[in-house]
Description:
This protein has 384 residues and is mainly β.
Amino acid sequence: MEITCEFENGNQNIIQEAIDRCPERGGTVIVPSGEWKSGPLHLKSNLTLQLEKGCIIHFSDNRRDYLPVVFTRWEGVECYNYSPLIYAYGCQNITITGEGILDGCGQSWWSWKKLQQDAANRLCRAESLGIRPEDRVFGTETDALRPSFLQLIHCEHVVLKDFTIQDGPQWTIHPVYCRHVQVQRVRILTHGPNTDGINPDSCEDVLIEKCSFSTGDDCIAINSGLNEDGWRVNRPCRRVEVRDCVFLGGHAAVAIGSGMSGGVEQVDIHDCTIRNTERGIRIKSMPGRGGYVRNVTCRNMTIEQVEEEGVQVSMNYGSSTAVPVSSKAPVFSDISFRNIEIKGAKVGVEVCGLPESPVKVRLDKVEMQVEREIQVKDGEVLDF
């Protein structure tokens, strides 16, 4: 079944109404060329949302449109908060495709960066006290916890391809507890605070391919829950492949952590170009966070004109919403970098472990034209 949206002046529910009309067995909602205004979109199983070339969907900047609250994971901690701009829970076979543009109108949300710390602290205290997720309810302008742009939770067989997504409230594409996710040829442009590009979060079998990024935070950040919530849920992020992507601005091009308390493993990053980010590849955690990062390979890459380190593997990450309250040390193992060229960084490769959890990193054919090639503390750099 195909449903083509028809413009109706003053109605920002046209696209959602079309989605609601699709039968459970499957359907395609076509958004034609033109400028559209929309409230939040809640997807369903067996749905294709087709964004035709010339289509621009401007999402509402009225916070009340994103109520009632929904179940979410906010920076690694489960709670109930404003609905993401595009949301799905427990769905299968979802595709968003086409050459259109999704515009989050994020400027109206970004001022909340200065207001959200109190609510973030309360959320993290609730986590550490063992308060149930269903009792961690936010979703007010006083709380000011910004939602993700596109969040999929407990979904399988998801395909996102060919569209541009820009200026969301906070994290941009955020699959949580998902399996078999493909993100292909997506262009991410967002420059507000904490506007990560793609955040696979306790997911399995994720492919990110031929995408381009210019973001206000990490372009890709691979995580698995924060502190007590990560340990309680205990779902690693595993089998993630990033290939043939271009990173043209942001904090790290690809980060693993720091919310990796549930573990991250089997990550393959290759054949990418990184230019003008703060850092190239960054694996980060901190004392007390627990969890592990293992079986990570980065290969066949060019890293140019980054502000700090070309490669950083560190357990001394100093910026986090929640400081761990445990003595659990993270563990990093089987991390390697092969056939990489690093130019114009302050430090080529930095390795920083902990006395109780030293880090070993393997390098093979890593060429550097940088101010300082290798910097190590509580760790070791090995050749193949």
